[in-house]
Recover the amino acids of this structure.
């Protein structure tokens, strides 16, 4: 019997009400094995099988209604079928309900309910639920944070081939969370996922070779793994590739190629790549110098509160680089960076308060910011302190030093 004849026969059986044929046909359309993938027909046959009591079909059609896969999204229908399957201890349905509670899909976000669903499905042996349960324990979502429990469930999921669980076991080993810190163990977990083509595993394995952690340092091997991850669109790996070409590390320095890699990562809103593009425009490396474009990219990078981008915006507004000079805006950006412990920003806050630019002149605050920066060995601040001190009487100086110690303790990187 030819393949087409088998499919025709299967369709006939399904139309006659054969549940096994309906379920098989739905699975083929769902996976695209042996025929063109068609999620609409997959949903149709899952629904037919679900109506006849197939628990497996009830779970899958519920998930399809939840996500709008091949069928119009309908949360009421989704939960009707999911609850029906979950009531018969179907682990897939229970895990999907956990996902809906975790992400607020068709219901109010509720981490405790998500945790309960994942735990139930995990105890039934569901690999993804075991990973999700580990994640909930690791982050304290819906339960108390417990790294030992996180590792326990990650291990169970990892044994079932869950790549995310294997990756997280690598990260736990790397940082000593729930297990003894071991760079060697981290490398082995990362390698397991990298060998299966998992981009985040390739990236982390590349970093281990780059840094010589758990393996002898090898820049060539590092680049191979990072390039593999970058080729799959992983933004952090694309950023690392950009750094190789930016600094000429193990490759010929090429700012244009660096720019291209950073652009790929920036398209995924990776803030460090956005910052590097801004730097290239500021310096005219690989692109025509353009301070206005630099400011645009610095602004993009500050969406993630990136301290170096905040500082650069302060500098650009203070000096009128690519924007109209505006000390009040400059002060606002310097302050954001200063509060994250950026020494140069703290120094400039001291300067602006001393000059009364963008803020009311205040020698006490000027001294305090200079003091905070100087304690982090900002050379300009060390010199500036003496100049500002000349503006203060004894009582004011005591107050300024007290405030400076507060700033130093509170705003450190």
């Amino acid at each position: 019997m030819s393949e087409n004849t088998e499919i025709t026969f299967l369709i006939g059986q399904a139309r006659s009400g054969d549940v096994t044929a309906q379920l098989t046909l739905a699975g083929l359309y769902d996976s695209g094995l042996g025929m063109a993938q068609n999620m609409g027909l997959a949903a149709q046959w899952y629904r037919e099988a679900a109506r006849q009591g197939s628990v497996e079909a009830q779970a899958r059609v519920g998930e399809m209604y939840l996500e709008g896969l091949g069928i119009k999204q309908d949360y009421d229908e989704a939960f009707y079928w999911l609850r029906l399957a979950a009531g018969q201890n179907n682990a897939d349905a229970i895990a999907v309900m956990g996902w809906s509670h975790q992400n607020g899909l068709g219901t109010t976000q509720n981490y405790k309910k998500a945790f309960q669903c994942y735990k139930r499905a995990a105890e039934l042996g569901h690999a993804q639920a075991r990973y999700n349960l580990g994640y909930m324990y690791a982050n304290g979502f819906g339960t108390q944070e417990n790294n030992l429990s996180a590792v326990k469930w990650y291990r169970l999921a990892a044994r079932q081939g869950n790549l995310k669980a294997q990756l997280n076991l690598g990260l736990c080993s790397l940082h000593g969370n729930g297990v003894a810190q071991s760079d060697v163990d981290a490398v082995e977990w990362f390698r397991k996922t990298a060998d299966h083509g998992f981009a985040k595993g390739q990236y982390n394995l590349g970093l281990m070779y780059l840094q010589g952690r758990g393996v002898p340092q090898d820049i060539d091997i590092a680049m191979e793994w990072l390039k593999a991850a970058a080729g799959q669109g992983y933004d952090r790996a694309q950023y690392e590739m950009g750094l190789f070409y930016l600094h000429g590390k193990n490759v010929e320095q090429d700012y244009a190629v660096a720019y291209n890699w950073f652009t790929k990562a920036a398209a995924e809103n990776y803030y460090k790549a956005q910052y590097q593009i801004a730097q290239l425009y500021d310096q005219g490396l690989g692109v025509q110098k353009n301070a206005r474009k630099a400011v645009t990219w610095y602004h993009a990078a500050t969406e993630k509160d990136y301290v170096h981008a905040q500082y650069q915006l302060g500098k650009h507004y203070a000096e009128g680089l690519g924007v109209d000079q505006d000390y009040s805006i400059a002060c606002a950006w310097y302050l954001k960076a200063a509060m994250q412990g950026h020494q140069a920003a703290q120094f400039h806050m001291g300067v602006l308060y001393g000059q009364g630019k963008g803020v009311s002149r205040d020698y006490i605050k000027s001294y305090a910011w200079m003091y905070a920066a100087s304690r982090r060995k900002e050379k300009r601040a060390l010199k500036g302190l003496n100049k500002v001190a000349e503006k203060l009487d004894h009582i004011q100086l005591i107050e300024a030093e007290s405030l400076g110690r507060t700033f130093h303790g509170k705003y450190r990187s």
About this structure: The chain has a mean pLDDT of 95. The domain at 1-88 is CATH 1.25.40.10 (Serine Threonine Protein Phosphatase 5, Tetratricopeptide repeat). The two ends are 71 Å apart (CA to CA).
